[in-house]
Write a sequence for this structure.
């Protein structure tokens, strides 16, 4: 079986260095660690200023993913997310902090997110329930996939 490192590709698309796990639908902690390691290398050693993540096949993302992206953003790195599935794009953090572009990309946006309407308690609770459900399904997947 190929290692996770072998399943992730890194390439340049229109000036953006893109990380892509291919058809992997569910990311776990090891995937997130590999993403963080690769992003750190690209930013700190290779001095990339524009990073992208391909999300076409991704159905579930660990909660640490957004924090990792925000850390990059705070360093002045442009962050682009490509082709997220509707359930990913509808996540509360995604809607609040990512700007959808006309060409289908999502860009991590600046403090203009603070100007937007704050989520209601019901929205926050619904988002927590979605996370719990996705984590349970992810856990069920990992026990059946082994």
């Amino acid at each position: 079986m190929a290692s996770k490192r072998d399943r992730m590709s890194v390439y340049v698309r229109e000036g953006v260095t893109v990380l892509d796990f291919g058809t992997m639908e569910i990311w776990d902690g090891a995937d997130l660690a590999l993403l963080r390691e690769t992003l750190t290398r690209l930013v700190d050693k290779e001095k990339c200023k524009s990073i992208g993540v391909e999300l076409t096949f991704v159905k579930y993302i660990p909660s640490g993913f957004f924090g990792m992206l925000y850390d990059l953003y705070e360093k002045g790195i442009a962050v682009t997310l490509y082709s997220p599935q509707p359930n990913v794009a509808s996540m509360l953090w995604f809607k609040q902090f990512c700007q959808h572009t006309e060409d289908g990309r999502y860009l991590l946006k600046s403090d203009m997110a603070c100007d937007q309407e704050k989520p209601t308690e019901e929205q926050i609770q619904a988002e927590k329930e979605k996370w719990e459900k996705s984590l349970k399904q992810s856990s069920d997947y990992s026990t059946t996939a082994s």
Remarks:
- The beta strands are 9-13, 16-20, 50-54, 78-82, 98-100, 105-108.
- Residues 8 and 21 are 4 Å apart (CA to CA).
- Residues 111-117, 141-146 have pLDDT under 50 and may be disordered.
